[in-house]
Amino acid sequence: MIQLGKTQTLTVTRQSPNGVYLNEKEDASGQEVLLPNAQVPTDAKVGDEVEVFVYNDSKDRMIATRKTPSLQIGEPAVLRVVQTTNIGAFLDWGLDKDLLLPFKQQSGILNEGDEVLVGLYVDKSHRLCATMKLYDMLGSESPYQKGDRVSGTVYRINRELGCFVAVDGKYHGMIPMKELYGNFRIGDTISARVKKVYEDGKLELSVREAAHEEIEGDAQIILDRMKQSGGRLGLNDDSSPEAIKSALNMSKKAFKRAVGRLLKEGVLKITDDGIELLWK
């Protein structure tokens, strides 16, 4: 059976003035798809096999091409917005006809030139469309283990749960709110550490380093901020997690670890109002 939205090998069944017609080998359904003349290999004849991608032409008819699109069903990809209209955004995916991303399948406001991570699906009218709602398109059988470094693209942000990430563009990953430090937007490419692999294979991620590696960086952030503030900082163990995150973009736990390291090194002291550098 010919598969819309997929690269596949089909057989030339007959020739016509407009090109050649293709079908899956030994398919008795009679279904065919046209490969236009401009795409037909030199000296192609009935019985030859051709690798093609099948999509919709400008009249929404199935048509084949030997061009390779930037994505196909089951393989999300980052595409560029080339036009926004009252029915949705159109994306460049490497074919003559741009790909529609309907309004209902968008997450946030899009502008021309934006790059978005999308998947490909067949709508109710049997047309190929893009979607930014990728959760059901991602898999859980990744090769990664706890402690591995991964990269991915942010495709959804939930202020109660965290930041959803398509690891390698195809695996489930999420940065929980407790690990979400920094300003992230949909479409951002991030590097993260696998903090946990759940029983179902989904990945819990962190953009922070492991505790023994991040203390030095946190300590430097605190020192830099204190120097900018005349050697003092109005934060200590009694400060709220919200105040610490707002001032330093780190958790209270990380703040206490870093301050503990600086205390041991004799760099600062704790006062009633916060912490203070010991100038030497």
3D architecture notes:
The protein has 280 residues and is mainly beta. Helix content is 14%, strand content 37%. The chain contains three helices and 18 strands. The chain has helices at 211-228, 241-248, 252-264; strands at residues 7-16, 19-23, 33-36, 49-56, 62-65, 77-85, 88-92, 99-102, 115-122, 128-131, 149-158, 162-167, 171-176, 189-197, 203-206, 232-233, 268-270, 275-277. The strands form four sheets. Strands 3-2-1-4-5 form a five-stranded antiparallel sheet, with no helix packed on it. Strands 8-7-6-9-10 form a five-stranded antiparallel sheet, with no helix packed on it. Strand 6 (77-85) and strand 7 (88-92) form a beta hairpin. The longest helix has 18 residues, at 211-228. The model has no long low-confidence stretch (mean pLDDT 88).
> In terms of quaternary structure, what is this?
single chain
DSSP, total strands = 18
- Category from helices, strands and their pairing: mainly beta
Q: Widest sheet: strand order?
A: 3-2-1-4-5
- Helix content bin: 10-25%
| Rg, Cα atoms, Å | 27 Å
Our count of helices gives 3
